[in-house]
Each structure stands twice: as structure tokens, then as C-alpha cells.
Design brief:
13% of the residues lie in helices and 36% in strands. It has two helices and 30 strands. Strands 5, 6, 9, 10, 22, 23 and 24 form a seven-stranded antiparallel beta sheet that branches. The protein has three domains: 4-69 and 387-421, no CATH class; 73-148 and 308-383, no CATH class; 165-301, Sandwich (Tick-borne Encephalitis virus Glycoprotein, domain 1), CATH 2.60.98. 29% of the residues are buried. The longest helix has 33 residues, at 389-421. The protein has helices at residues 4-25, 389-421; strands spanning 35-42, 58-66, 73-75, 82-85, 90-93, 99-102, 108-109, 115-116, 122-129, 134-141, 165-170, 192-199, 205-216, 219-226, 229-230, 243-248, 261-262, 266-267, 275-277, 280-283, 295-301, 309-314, 319-324, 329-335, 337-339, 347-350, 353-355, 365-367, 376-379, 381-383. By secondary structure, it is mainly beta. Helix 1 packs antiparallel against helix 2 (389-421). A hairpin with a 4-residue loop joins strand 23 and strand 24.
Length: 424
């Protein structure tokens, strides 16, 4: 007779209750993954193997298997919260420099501008490259600047989409040429006007006013003043302004000449002589002359003043964007998710973290969210624990009954042994 079977059953069921209890305790832990106890029967070894009629000697826990199925997503109000929907892990840098992995997307900024989790571990991402249109290089800690840095002068923004001034408008073909000479102070000397702010090399804003005067059929002259003074400074005056450029149109209303730049220097109105902008690029593409009211569909320029950081957040492609007080926004970095062939081999560290082991192997996949088999990301959301609370409560009841049943086998063995002892 043996107490082994019942004792092993108590031990295994007790361990199972620990696993269930840990699952229940983490039912509200974002990014947590539940586990399950996996059992294996035990038989005594023999030279020729156990016979078909041999009774087993109990049960053991063969492994505690982590369950990496997807948890539900819930929205939050934190722009730095991000959830993975599908395969993949965030990469985090520990204080030792070691890379660890997590599914918990609760992030924040620390005092040094790094994006960190609740334990202070730094989130890793690829640095954004505008030319490449995505993240490049090895993943590194994300650190945000407190300011945008130096201002950019109009005409020197250097972006492929916009350089200098871009203006699209419609000039009413039905308008007649004004009867009086051009004069900024006389609204009846021009047909239309509009304005925008340009920036000098120090980020100071200056108001550029554009005046459109019909000169002949299908032809228009463009005049300009900057901070109320003629664009050529002392060489011109409000009552005798200099023409900035001319526009010509075909009979169907489309523009036949598209000035690429203002070839003459634009003079700084603050001293009237120094050059403010040299050959300022001005693109009138999209401008038309239809028999319709005057309208401005686009009026942009590429300069800006310096600005302070006002907000940050992820978008749905994993790009972290920073916005500044000057209205600018910039892409800082792009998340790089990682995945493993053997998720069960990952070692849990606590704090919603795992580390790779020999069993898990090195990461087999690294890439941007949504690439290959890697999951997508949802900004302003978190992945809930994948623990099924109802199922765990049922499992707990079952484990409790099994514990009682195993204790009964020990009690029965004790009674049988007592009967033998009492034999005379």
C-alpha cells in the first residue's frame, strides 16, 4: 500500500490552484498572459518497462504553459498608450542595457524626455527618416526634444512637397481692368488681395500682402507689400509699387505661365535696403481664371518659428509624433515589434516582462507593426489580460474538488493500514 498517489495528487492540485490564483490576481493587469498547469502521470520504472497491469504512482506537473492568445483591446485617454493586436512584443531596454519584451503598452515620459513604462524601462524604436519614409537603423530608446530647435526661413524648408510659397487661387475672368493706377492705399486700383505670414532666419514673422490686378484679357499682374511696405523697399512706394510677377491664362481658364520664383530680391521692410529673401520660390500651380468668384484654395509656405513641445502620441502605424507650439508636427521614431518561434520558451520576469532564453531562441522576426506576421497597433488603447475570469473560477472549483478527492485517498489508505495493524 502507498500514500504516493494521493500525496502527488495533493501537490499537483495545490500547484494548479497557485496557477489559477495567479491568473485571477492578474485578470485586470494590462498585457498579462494567463498560464495553465499541464499534468503528466507517473509510473515506476522497470528493466523491461511497466507491465500492462501496473498501477501508476501518481501525477506530476510537467510544465506551466503560458497562454499567448490575444486579449481584448480597451480605449484610454492617454496618447502614449498603445496596444498590439496580433503577434509581437514591444522592445524595452533595462537599466543593465539588456533588451526585454512586453505586451503592456502603458507608456509615459520621464524627466529626461525618454518614453518609459511604469518600471522606468525605455521603449525602443527606430529613428524616423523622412527620405526613407519610415524607421531606419537599429532600435534605440526614444527621446523627445523639449523644443523644435532653430527656426526655418521661408524658402529654406527643404521639403519635397513644399518649398517657398505655394499659392492656388481663382481669378474671376469677368472682372475688368481697374481704371486707376496701382496704389496699395486705393482698393479700387486692384481687383483682389490676400496675405500670409513669412518668416526670416530668426523666426520673426512678417506679413506678405499680395495684390492681383487685371492688366488685359487673360493677363494679371501681381504686386506685393511686406509689413505694409513695397517688396523692393526704398526702390518702390505704396503709390508706385513694383510688379512682383505676371500671370497669363488660356481661353479655357487654365494658366499658361507658371512663375517658378521671384528672381529679384525681396527687401527687408525693417531697414528698407537689406535683402530679406533672395529668389523666393513661389509656386502658382493650380491657379485658374474662371468666370467665378475669387477664391484661395491653397496658400502655404515652408518657414516657421521655433516652438516648444506641446504634445506627443502614436499613430496606428507605430510612428511617434511630436507637436509643437508653432503648429508644426514631426515624426520622431517608429516602433519595431519582435516575435519568437517558441513563445513558451520565454522566461517571465514579472512586471509584464519576458526575456529570451535558449528555449525561445533569439527573435526570429523584427519589423514595423503590420509587416509580415507581426500584429498591428492601436494608439490610445491597451490590451487587457487574456484571463477568462469565469473559466478560472470554474477551474478553481474543479481543482478544489480534486484536492478533496486526493485527500480522501490518503484517508482511505490510512484506514486500510490501521485495519492491518489491528489484526491479531
Amino acid at each position: 500500500m502507498s500514500f504516493q498517489q494521493g500525496l502527488s495528487g495533493l501537490n499537483a492540485t495545490s500547484k494548479n490552484l497557485e496557477v489559477i490564483g495567479n491568473n485571477i490576481a492578474n485578470a485586470n493587469t494590462f498585457g498579462a498572459k494567463g498560464s495553465r498547469a499541464e499534468f503528466a502521470d507517473l509510473y515506476a520504472g522497470a528493466l523491461n518497462g511497466a507491465s500492462g497491469s501496473a498501477a501508476g504512482i501518481g501525477v506530476s506537473i510537467s510544465s506551466i504553459a503560458q497562454q499567448f492568445n490575444q486579449g481584448n483591446l480597451t480605449t484610454t485617454s492617454n496618447p502614449l498608450d498603445i496596444a498590439i493586436n496580433g503577434r509581437g512584443f514591444f522592445q524595452l531596454q533595462a537599466s543593465t542595457g539588456e533588451t526585454v519584451y512586453s505586451r503592456n503598452g502603458q507608456f509615459k515620459l520621464n524627466r529626461d524626455g525618454f518614453v518609459v513604462n511604469g518600471e522606468g524601462l525605455k521603449l525602443l524604436a527606430q529613428k524616423w527618416d523622412d527620405a526613407a519614409g519610415g524607421g531606419v537603423g537599429d532600435a534605440a530608446p526614444i527621446q523627445l526634444q523639449s523644443g523644435l530647435g532653430s527656426p526655418v526661413k521661408t524658402g529654406q524648408g527643404g521639403t519635397t512637397a513644399l518649398q517657398g510659397v505655394q499659392m492656388s487661387l481663382n481669378l474671376d475672368a469677368r472682372k475688368a481692368t481697374p481704371a486707376v493706377a496701382m496704389d496699395f492705399t486705393k482698393p479700387d486700383s486692384y481687383n483682389y488681395s490676400t496675405s500670409q505670414t513669412l518668416y526670416d532666419g530668426q523666426g520673426a514673422g512678417l506679413t506678405m500682402d499680395y495684390y492681383f490686378r487685371k492688366s488685359a484679357t487673360d493677363s494679371w499682374d501681381v504686386y506685393a507689400s511686406i509689413d505694409g511696405k513695397d517688396w523692393q523697399g526704398t526702390a518702390g512706394a505704396a503709390t508706385a509699387p513694383n510688379k512682383l510677377t505676371s500671370l497669363s491664362f488660356a481661353t479655357d481658364g487654365s494658366m499658361t505661365t507658371t512663375p517658378a520664383s521671384i528672381t529679384s530680391n525681396i527687401i527687408d521692410p525693417r531697414d528698407g535696403t537689406s535683402t530679406l529673401f533672395a529668389q523666393l520660390p513661389v509656386n502658382f500651380a493650380g491657379t485658374s481664371q474662371y468666370a467665378a468668384g475669387f477664391s484661395v484654395s491653397q496658400l502655404k509656405q515652408d518657414g516657421y518659428t521655433s516652438g516648444e513641445l506641446t504634445g506627443i502620441g502614436f499613430d496606428d502605424t507605430g510612428v511617434i509624433k511630436a507637436t509643437y507650439s508653432n503648429g508644426r508636427s514631426t515624426n520622431m521614431s517608429q516602433l519595431q515589434l519582435t516575435d519568437f518561434s517558441n513563445l513558451q520558451g520565454l522566461q517571465p520576469l514579472g512586471g509584464n516582462l519576458w526575456k529570451s532564453t535558449y528555449a525561445s531562441g533569439d527573435p526570429t522576426r523584427m519589423g514595423n507593426p503590420g509587416s509580415g506576421v507581426l500584429g498591428s497597433v492601436t494608439a490610445g488603447a491597451l490590451e487587457e489580460s487574456n484571463v477568462d475570469l469565469t473559466g478560472e473560477l470554474v477551474n478553481m472549483i474543479t481543482a478544489q474538488r480534486l484536492y478533496q478527492a486526493n485527500s480522501q485517498t490518503i484517508k482511505t489508505q490510512d484506514q486500510v493500514l490501521q485495519t492491518l495493524v489491528n489484526l491479531r
